[in-house]
Design goal:
Layout lengths: L4 H20 L10 E2 L7 E6 L5 E6 L3 E14 L5 E5 L4 E4 L4 E3 L7 E7 L1
Antiparallel strand pairs: 1-3, 2-3, 2-4, 4-7, 4-8, 5-6, 5-8
Length: 117
């Protein structure tokens, strides 16, 4: 079989397009968590508490899926990110960038996952 530079270049371009399409097809769940120190107001920041008395603040950067392990979210600051969280009932709740929310005692959402979009 005889190959010309044009036919080889076409095959390389098609292969590259197919490889790119495969990357786009990877589900969002394949993203890695990007927990960072809470040093920048542009990061997503959540204050949380657990059923076992633990309390803390966790911050995240970059587009990612972050599993927060079944905590009650006391407050959420989205920084410069659009955020979606999933509560334990499976409801997805959207918060636009620039949002700061504090939930009253007893009304905090019980969450597992936060996505930075």
């Amino acid at each position: 079989m005889k190959f010309t530079m044009k036919s080889v270049a076409s095959k390389v371009v098609v292969s590259g397009v197919l490889a790119g399409a495969a990357l786009v097809a990877i589900p969002a769940g394949a993203a890695t968590a990007n927990e960072v120190p809470c040093t920048d107001v542009n990061f997503v920041s959540i204050a949380w508490h657990s059923d076992f008395g633990g309390r803390g603040e966790s911050c995240y950067a970059n587009k990612s899926e972050n599993h927060v392990n079944n905590v009650w979210m006391d407050s959420l600051s989205t920084g410069n990110n659009d955020v979606v969280y999933e509560d334990l009932n499976g409801a997805l709740v959207n918060f636009p960038r620039g949002t700061y929310t504090i939930w009253p005692d007893g009304q905090e959402p019980h969450i597992n996952t936060i996505w930075i979009l």
